[in-house]
User: What shape does this take?
Amino acid sequence: MVTTKELPLKEYVLKGNAACAGCQDMVALRHAHKALEGDVIQVVPACCTSVVQSLWPKSGLGIPVLNTAFPAAAATASGVKAALKAKGNNHTQVMVWAGDGGTFDIGLQALSGALERRTDFLYICYNNQVYSNTGTQRSGATPLHAQTTTTWYGKTEPEKMLDLIVAAHEPVYQFTANSSYPRDLYDKIKKAQEIEGPKFGHIFLPCPQAWNYPVEKGVEIGKLAVETGYWIMWERVGDEFILGKYSKRYQDPEKRKPIEEFLKIQGRFSRLFKPKRNEAKIQELQDYVQHRWDLVMKTFT
Ligand SMILES: Cc1ncc(C[n+]2csc(CCOP(=O)(O)OP(=O)(O)O)c2C)c(N)n1
Ligand code: SF4
Assistant: This one.
C-alpha cells in the first residue's frame, strides 16, 4: 500500500471551496485525484461535488470537469470517452463522481447502459446515504431506521444492494472503499487506471450535515462502519473476489463491534435510543449486518 510520504504532493481539490467543514467527500476526492495525477476528465451530475466544483469564483477542482444533468452522468461519460478516442487520446481517464442519489436512484439507468456498452471509464459512487445537497432527503441508499427530512420517524426500508446490481453487469473491476481509509482508496483508483473497460467504485463516506454528528467524528464513524461489519471492503477483478485486509477479521461475527457503537454517535439514529431505547430496531440493524455479509459472500465466493 502507498505510504503517506509517497502520496503526490500536488493538490487537485482546492482549499477554501464550498464543502461543509469536515466533509469526507473532499477527503475521498482529494485522494482519487492524487492517484489520477491530473490526466482525467471528471463528469459530475447534480450533487454536493457539483456545487464544490462549479460555484464561481470559488471552483474547487483544478482539473477539467463536465457538469451534467442529474440522471445523465454515465451517458455523458460514454460520450466524452468516444470523443477522446476519436481524437486518438487513449490515456485520459474519464471518471464519473456521483452521489448515491445520482447512482442508486436517478442515474441507475444511464449507469446500466454505459456498463452494458462496455464504456472504458471509471464510475465512482460516493455514498453518503442521502440526498445531501438539497436538504437531506432519503435515497435508495439510506439505511433502515435512519431519520431524514422525508423519513421523520426513520426509514422503513433497508437500502438497495447496488453492488450486486452493478456486479450483474460484469464490470472489469469493481471495488468498495471508505473515506476513513484514503490510502486504500488511492491504491484502488491507481489499479482502476491500469485496467481497460468499465470499472465501478463504491465509496462509503459519512456526512456531518446529514447524519448529524460533530464534524471531528467523521474518520471515527467511517472506521466504526468497518469494525462493526456494517461496511465491507472488497475488490473484484473480473471474477476474482478479494476480501479487503481491513474487513477480513470482521468476517467473523464474534470479532465485530456491536452495531450500536456505529449508530449511537449519529443524530440520524437518535430515535433508536431516545426517549427510550428501541431494542427491536437496534437488533434489526444488527441482524442486517450479517444479512449483508451473507449476500456478498454467497454472491461472490
Ligand atoms: C432531474 C432532477 N431532479 C432533482 C434535482 C435536484 N437535485 C439536485 S442535487 C440533488 C441531490 C443529490 O443527491 P446525491 O446524488 O445523493 O448527492 P449529494 O447531494 O448527497 O452529494 C437533487 C435532488 C435535479 N437537479 N435534477
Ligand atoms: S452536505 Fe455532506 S457531502 Fe455535502 S458538502 Fe456537506 S458534508 Fe460534504
Notes: The CA atoms of residues 112 and 225 lie 28 Å apart. The pocket of iron/sulfur cluster (ligand 2) is lined by residues 19-20, 23, 25, 48, 128, 132-133, 207-210 (CB under 6 Å). The chain has a mean pLDDT of 97.
